[in-house]
Amino acid sequence: MIELTDVSKVYPGGVTALDHVSLRIPAGEIHGIVGRSGAGKSTLIRCLTGLDKATSGTVRIHGTDIGAATGSQLKKARRSIGMVFQHVNLLDSRTAAQNIAHPLEISGVPRQRRRERVAELLQLVGLTDRADNHPAQLSGGQKQRVGIARALAAEPQVLLCDEPTSALDAATTRQILGLIRQLREKLGITVIIITHEMSVVREICDAVSLLEDGRVARSGNLLEVISDSSSSLSRELISLPPTTHLAPGEQLIDVLLTPGGEVTHIGELVNLLQSQGLPAEVAAGSIETIQDHQVGRLHLKPQDPYSAQRTVETLTSAGVQAELLTAEDIAAEEAAQHAEDPAEVTS
Amino acid sequence: MTATLVAGDTWLNNPVVENQLPDAILETLYMTAATGFFTALFGLPLGILLHNLGPKGLTPVPALYRALSLVVDFGRAVPFIVLMLWIIPFTRLVVGTAIGWEAAVVPLTVGAIPFFARLVENSLRDVAWGKVEAVRMMGASDLHVTVNVLVREGLPGIVGGFTITLVTLISYTAMAGAVGGGGLGQLAINYGYHRYQGDVMLICVLLLVLIVTVVQYTGNFIARRLDHRESSAAGRRRFIPVPVQQVFPIHLPSRGTPS
Question: How far apart are CA B186 and CA B195, in angstroms?
């Protein structure tokens, strides 16, 4: 269990990086923390590890107050946290096996036990044949696997991942996320993933928190957050490809399909509309299965204002969130998304 | 005042070559080795201290860093030949004399320590901070991080810096020769220059160049061996040993399996 209570961090010079952040992450959960660069993600992780001290509030990891711990106490607490970095940060002078053994050396594990554990970990991440390679001889994905094995070496209860896949290509990202999920299932560890990639959150997280200007803007179970169509996080998590240009005055119906309503599949939604004699021309759509539930967002193109109105009514009465959008609404939304792009590159 | 290359029938038959050259070579080697040893002994810790007290160190103490920096820069600013003369009383205190190669080791070491310390500091600064934080996150002490991350990861750079220091030292040993330090430098000055013995001059120059080359190549070789960084992997590949048969095109009798 990771518990942040009213944590604030003000850097010398007056920059408030964290502003009364409270979070509870139960044991065994994979929790995503998203936000633009400068939102406080890095500061949050530094406070969790004790690399930075919170100005006020408490950070507890499995009962240990990280902020109050010093010296050997802090070192001990850190040994119960495994950390995975965007740039992996392996030591170039050590082989894969030696890098993985490093936390065990620091904890004073005897050589023989160390060797056994390293062999176990190499097998766990599927790199047994790469034990004696130096990081320079490994691919990006292989390096990150070594990084994960190293983070797990001292059998931590918590795995902190700081942008673990941001430097990897899509296929490798999938492998690494699959590995993290598999590790959670096998070892029951709590995982925090800091990321700016919504796909990572969709694919692996049980719960997600959105940081904005140092505050938790939204936090909760992944499906709950997505189901709340009023939150910007929902739109970012299930984002749509750009819709073809609308002429001024034309309308679109924005539909958010979430579990909990009468309609739980996209097929049912189409059937429902057709049973009412309404066309269901899809301009854009994005459908995912998250935690075994179908979740989707569609832009439907109505034939005329009358059928548009009826479509919205039909869907709403069936428990599906639907609203009418004009060309101006869509342009505004796209502009907001584009404003975030540079931030994503630098974070 | 160019040394003439034509010295009649004494060219290379010079008794100086026979009687004094072997000792001079040894003196130069001793001076370099002893100075190198003490420079590493004091310069490495000083460089580590500089780095760790500095703005990017493990335990920054700005005031102490500035003070230490000032001392180091002072040591580097004083021209070696002046330093050598200036600290003669100190040299006498340490080795009991101000003449001979043993005495020259003192000012050479004093001059080389700040030079090497700065190079060490630079090498440590090049070690990615992410590595330091990663190992700190494992619950490591500052001492462990210094030894296993900073020094170990910075070792190729430190070895490179030590090589540069040694090469610089060899040229300084020649300067020490001007004030009775001995070695090839003194031989070149006393005979090659003052007595116009061109052969002595030429031999001293060639030997100094040879020593410097050997030191430089050895240093490069060790640094390359220690370096596992990605950026230098391409450079390392060029030095993969060529199979013997390719260098000497001879055909070794093969122990082919009986078929």
Answer: 12
Backbone angles phi, psi at B42, to 5 degrees: -100, -35
| Partner residue opposite B137 with nearest CB, options A76, A83, A134 | A83
Nearest to B153 among A51, A91, A134 (CB): A91
ipTM for the whole complex = 0.79
Parts of chain A belonging to CATH 3.40.50.300:
2-232
Task: Tell me chain A's radius of gyration from C-alpha atoms.
Answer: 23
Instruction: Give CATH superfamily name and number for B19-247.
Output: MetI-like (1.10.3720.10)
Using an 8 Å CB-CB cutoff, list chain A residues near B152. 91, 93
CA distance A266 to A296: 8
CATH topology of domain A238-346: Alpha-Beta Plaits (3.30.70)
As annotated, the residues of chain A forming the CATH 3.30.70.260 domain(s) are: 238-346
Q: Which of A45, A46, A61, A89 would you mutate first to test chain B, the one with the most B CBs within 10 A?
A: A89
Prediction pTM value: 0.80
CA distance A153 to chain B (A): 10
Instruction: Give SS3 for B109.
Output: helix
Q: What is the dihedral sign for C-alpha B201, B202, B205, B211? A: negative
Distance CA B200, CA A143 (A): 58
Name the residue ranges covered by the structural domains of chain B: 19-247
Q: Tens digit of pLDDT per residue, chain B (259 long)?
A: 444 554 455 666 777 777 888 888 999 999 999 999 999 999 999 999 999 999 999 999 999 999 999 999 998 899 888 998 899 999 999 998 888 888 999 999 999 999 999 999 999 999 999 999 999 988 899 999 999 999 999 999 999 999 999 999 998 888 887 778 888 888 888 888 888 888 888 999 999 999 999 999 999 999 999 998 876 544 444 444 444 444 444 444 444 444 4
Cβ-based contacts of A85 with chain B (< 8 Å): 130, 134
Q: Which helix (H) or strand (E) holds A273?
A: helix A266-275
d(CA A257, CA A58): 39
Q: CATH number of the domain at A2-232, please? A: 3.40.50.300
